[in-house]
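Quick one from the shared queue. A colleague (R.T.) flagged DUF7455 domain-containing protein as missing a structural entry in our internal table.

Convert sequence to structure tokens.
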Amino acid sequence: MTTTTLTRPELTAADRCDRCGAAAQVRAVLPSGGELLFCGHHARAHEERLRAMSAELQKGEK
């Protein structure tokens, strides 16, 4: 049996915040496997709730 690990691509300038459309700086990977992209402002605003949901927060390169 072979195990394949999927990795998510780095955030680029084309990635946009799911709340306001600004440049995405943080990817929140949800326990269900889905993901949300946030600008810095919205990542900070929702960080507490995302952590409570056990979401993995991945910061993009600057």
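Residues 40-52 form the longest helix (13 residues).
The beta strands are 26-29, 35-38, 56-59.
Added to the table.
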